[in-house]
Amino acid sequence: MLDLDPASTDSQEALADAMARSRKPRLTWQGAFTSVMFFLMYLPILVLTVYSFNQSPYSAGWTGFTLEWYAKLLRDGRILGALQTSLAVGLGAVLVSAVLGTTMAVGLARYRFWGKGLYLGMSYLPLIVPDIAIAVATLVFLAALTIPLSFWTIVAAHIVFCLAYIALAVSTRLADLNPYLEEAAQDLGATPVQSFFQVLLPQLVPGIMSGCLLAFVLSLDDFLIASFTAGGGATTLPMEIFSRIRTGVKPDVNALSVLLLLGSGAIAFAAEWLRFQSEKKPS
């Protein structure tokens, strides 16, 4: 029969109590500061959401709860038409950019050629150049070539910056992959084309999808580039919203903003989830 030492037992209990206290969440000034900053950042969104359900058409004071503005929004032909244009522009730009951005990222990662460093630096310029500069440069370029502004010029302009975001996402995924998998596939008899489509491309799909979702949100949100390159009859959703808020923010615009926030948040969450899943998979 074992005889336990009371002093040893007491020390173990004290150690257990100390560990339990150390695991309790403690409020630090860093945590408090972070909480206050997040509260201030999201407070305008909270106010916007509350006033989208306000019965008053002037948003000056709370007069009652209503879903009238959301119902009115769904019956607004101009808003629905502008949304359709934005979705078409975003999908068109993302589809083209997905193909070009993937091939560009693979080419820069797998091959060496003269001027590669210069091309690599220029390919990511749309990420750091201000939107107003891209918009003015695109407009001057189209005017120099006497290309009339239309729906397709918006798509072409959006491809410029969507391409850079997708290429960056694919390049990040490529850096985590084993570069010898394609060589092993070719040693086993696969052609370079087969090794790309059957070995490399399936591993790049999460990065491609993440970049496409991010680029789509940015395209849907763009106002400056679209307003500079849009022709007659081509009105995107941000352009339509801007034209309406010149005389004041209406409750239906509040409702539209809430829906856009929810949609953009869902797409951003999906992109982040795909990126997280791709990082968990072994290369």
From TrEMBL:
Keyword terms, alphabetized: Cell membrane, Membrane, Transmembrane, Transmembrane helix, Transport
One of the Pfam families matching this protein, by short name: BPD_transp_1
Keyword Transmembrane helix: yes
Spans traversing the lipid bilayer: 31-53, 87-111, 123-145, 151-175, 196-217, 223-242, 254-274
Membrane topology: Multi-pass membrane protein
Major subcellular location class: membrane
CDD domains noted in UniProt: TM_PBP2
UniProt key word Metal-binding: no
The family this protein is said to belong to: Belongs to the binding-protein-dependent transport system permease family. CysTW subfamily.
Protein name: ABC transporter permease
Organism: Limnothrix redekei LRLZ20PSL1
